[in-house]
Fold this protein.
Amino acid sequence: MADDPTVATYRIEDGIAWVSFNRPDKRNCMSPNLNRRMGEILDEIEFRDDFSVLVLKGEGSAWSAGMDLKEYFRETEAQGLGATRKAQRESYGWWRRLRWYQKPTIAMVNGWCFGGGYGPLYACDLAIAADEAQFALSEINWGILPGGGATKVVVDLMPLRDAMYHAMTGELIGGQKAAEWRLVNESVPLARLEARVTELAKVLQGKNPVALKATKDAIRRVKEMTYDNAEDYLVRAQEAANSFDNEGRKEGIKQFIDDKTYKPGLGAYDKSKQVDA
Ligand code: COA
């Protein structure tokens, strides 16, 4: 159990779970306590049926200023290797949970995003930033390499030259540049950020949830596969998804071919008409 449950919070409204880093006075840096609480929240809410999209946001001026240099590094290291490994398990653990989360996830990057913050950033399926947000791999500025997955994140998301420049200089980039370098999908003025994220969440809410989970997992899995392996995986993943929801797929075909009420190329079928077998 987290000692202080207020360091990460959530509220569920209109089918969206708004999960917050909530240490604004510490720029939402990730302490062991915060990591533990995030893990608990993800566990608590994952299969609730009153929300279908999770948004990860930061309270105050930061999204997350990365790992807590005092509580995560200095104080944990002082307790020995066992404590260090435990702190790593708890932080990497909730990021991994988020990468494979049941519901689609959106990072709403409202402000500072540093170093270790790239772990949860990457874990979210989609990311929308404020133009005013500031990103950096600041590790080089205090004398370590970008660990905790951060190096892997920039190599996965960015072109190599940009990843190298970003990691070796530690320079800040704004939301627009982060979008150009593909750290996030897009960047909008801070005043429009929540509205844009809500709009995107609504788009996801209109899709078949079984297909969304299968799709987001497939995107991450096939990235490292050969074409043949991916082809095989996708056949099996589709068949497995059908065993959870075959009716949605049939309804989608019916509304297009028989009812002629929508065109899949132009939008999603009407899920409310789906009759589950
Ligand atoms: N670890 C520990 N404490 C942190 C922190 C971090 N990563 N980021 C911020 N804090 C703390 C500060 O020590 C300060 O604590 P205090 O009020 O007890 O003195 C408080 O949060 C506010 O930070 P401050 O630096 O005064 O805010 P700012 O708005 O002027 O600057 C940052 C914001 C994010 C630019 C600055 O705090 C910073 O550089 N943080 C470190 C970022 C970093 O390198 N993270 C990578 C870790 S992997």
User: Anything to note?
Assistant: The two ends are 41 Å apart (CA to CA). The mean pLDDT is 96. The domain at 5-205 is CATH 3.90.226.10 (2-enoyl-CoA Hydratase; Chain A, domain 1).
